[in-house]
Amino acid sequence: MTIALNLPLNPNAGIPHYTAHGNECALFESAWSRQLPILLKGPTGCGKTRFVRHMAARLGLPVSTVSCHDDLTAADLTGRYLLKGGETVWVDGPLTKAVREGGVCYLDEIVEARKDVAVVLHPLTDDRRLLPLERTGELIEAQSSFMVVVSYNPGYQNLMKSLKPSTRQRFVSIEFDFLPRDREIAAVSIESGLAESRVAPLVDLARRLRTLKGQDLEEGVSTRLIIYCATLVDAGMPLVEAVRAAIIEPLTDEADVKAALVEVAAATLGR
Ligand SMILES: Nc1ncnc2c1ncn2[C@@H]1O[C@H](COP(=O)(O)OP(=O)(O)OP(=O)(O)O)[C@@H](O)[C@H]1O
Ligand SMILES: [Mg+2]
Asked: Which of 12, 27, 54, 138 has the highest Cβ tally under 10 A?
């Protein structure tokens, strides 16, 4: 008798595409299996969020993502008492839910969060793996599959903001940069549907513009923007218009800088 297994034809189905920079996938897997938290740092649009989604899907873990901002407090993560039908009931926040149920709790732009967030993260991100809930009097031990991942962009806007050493030193850290040329071309082609031969000049342009970071530009062209541009071209938009809308305009508001970028684009793309 043959037993029909309902295996998906493509073993990667449902796993978001991710082109690796180096050994980060193995590093993530080892850290998760040994219950170590991870910190990701790198410029905007270089693949940090995609990496977390990819790894969580590979490991079969749910991800709960919190975008931190300067009003985010510990209570937003842990939970609070709410009035429901005349009664006060405790409602778990995303962190508490993940601690109880397991999976990845991903805190994006962690440097933005209020200082009291570090207080709840500390006992969770060292070998205790505990979440004390003062309001309910509970002390919750994290599920074995629970993992904290935090990320931030150490760019210009965060110069004044940084994590305390006692927080930083609780995480295995991975620094991200943009992919090497060939891999970035491959990734942009997969994401946009545009052929690699047509993506290559866009990646070359982006790499050239990245060298202007710190002089005329605050940030380099992200992989995200190259994908936007390639997607517009794939949809039939003329190259020059796509480059202007998806690469040049998002980079700067200054007319003279924009004009200089248009020139670099014309020289690189040969038109
Ligand atoms: N290495 C990569 N593999 C596959 N896709 C990538 C990769 N890097 C970037 N991308 C693509 O670029 C987009 C932006 O990446 P992502 O959202 O992960 O950036 P980020 O580093 O989290 O940026 P931010 O700091 O602004 O949140 C993704 O939607 C994905 O399409
Ligand atoms: Mg992100």
From this structure: 54
Pick from 152, 104, 108: which is nearest to 124 by CA? 104
pLDDT in tens, 230-246: 999 999 999 999 999 99
Rounded alpha-carbon distances, angstroms, from residue 221 to 181, 186, 212:
13, 17, 10
Query: Span 24-175: which CATH code?
Result: 3.40.50.300
Amino acid identity for residue 228 in this structure: Y
pTM: 0.91
Residue-wise burial string across 103-127, b where 16 or more C-beta atoms lie within 10 A, e elsewhere: bbbbbbbbbbbbeebbebbebbbee
Amino acid at 249: E
Domain ranges of the chain: 24-175, 181-269
CA distance 197 to 269: 13
pLDDT digit string, tens, across residues 94-119: 999 999 999 999 999 998 888 889 98
Q: How far is the CA of 120 from the centre of ligand 2 (A)?
A: 22
Handedness of CA 153, 159, 161, 163 (dihedral sign): positive
Q: What is the CB < 6 Å shell around ligand 1?
A: 17-19, 42, 44-50, 153, 179, 187, 191, 223-224, 227
Is residue 51 within 8 Å of 39, Cβ to Cβ? no
* Ligand with the closest atom to the CA of 186: 1
Could you tell me whether strands 138-141 and 130-133 are parallel, antiparallel, or unpaired per DSSP bridges?
antiparallel
- For residue 176, which atom of ligand 1 is closest to its CA? 21
